[in-house]
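User: Can you recover a sequence for this backbone? Please restate the input before giving your answer.

Assistant: Of course. Working from this structure:
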């Protein structure tokens, strides 16, 4: 209606009446966080023997350990990962912000395992899809959904939480809360 105020001045009186209607206040629902057991079952879901399982495990570990946004995760370049002397990764965030995140031992070993099977790929990104192209947000969402469903077998409480948006926020929030503690 604010747009129409300028586009249709002849209807200004009606538009002002509509704009004067108060907006309905709604309750904002809290994001349901994953417990440590739920998170561990998701991290253990990828098959550590297959190439895609090694990649998925490294992606999930890095996302969790760094509290990364999905866009930050899929944007990590292979040259931004340093495993010696202290394992860390350079993250390029929103607004051209950069931060260097130290890696946990388990995360560093997962990333090291992925780099050993990744091979020579033309894509500069660390994580690649099945066609050796860069991973997308939708691709990671699909991977997370797949492993969350698989993890439900070991952790029944995940069945109510695997919806993709809620899971993504919970995954991100739990990683942040662990980092801040």
């Amino acid at each position: 209606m604010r747009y129409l105020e300028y586009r249709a001045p002849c209807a200004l009186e009606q538009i002002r009446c509509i704009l004067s209607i108060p907006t309905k206040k709604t309750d904002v629902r809290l994001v349901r966080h994953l417990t440590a057991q739920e998170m561990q079952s998701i991290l253990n879901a990828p098959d550590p023997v297959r190439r895609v399982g090694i990649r998925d495990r490294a992606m999930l570990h890095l996302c969790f350990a760094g509290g990364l946004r999905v866009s930050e995760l899929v944007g990590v370049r292979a040259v931004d990962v340093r495993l010696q002397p202290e394992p860390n990764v350079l993250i390029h965030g929103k607004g051209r912000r950069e931060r260097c995140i130290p890696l946990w031992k388990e995360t560093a070993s997962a990333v090291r395992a992925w780099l050993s099977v990744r091979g020579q790929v033309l894509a500069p990104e660390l994580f690649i899809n099945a066609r050796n192209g860069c991973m997308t947000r939708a691709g990671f969402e699909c991977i997370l959904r797949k492993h969350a469903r698989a993890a439900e077998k070991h952790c029944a409480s995940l069945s109510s939480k695997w919806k993709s948006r809620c899971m993504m926020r919970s995954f991100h929030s739990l990683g942040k809360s662990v980092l801040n503690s």
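That completes the design. The helical segments are 2-7, 12-19, 36-44, 51-66, 70-74, 105-118, 137-151, 164-180.
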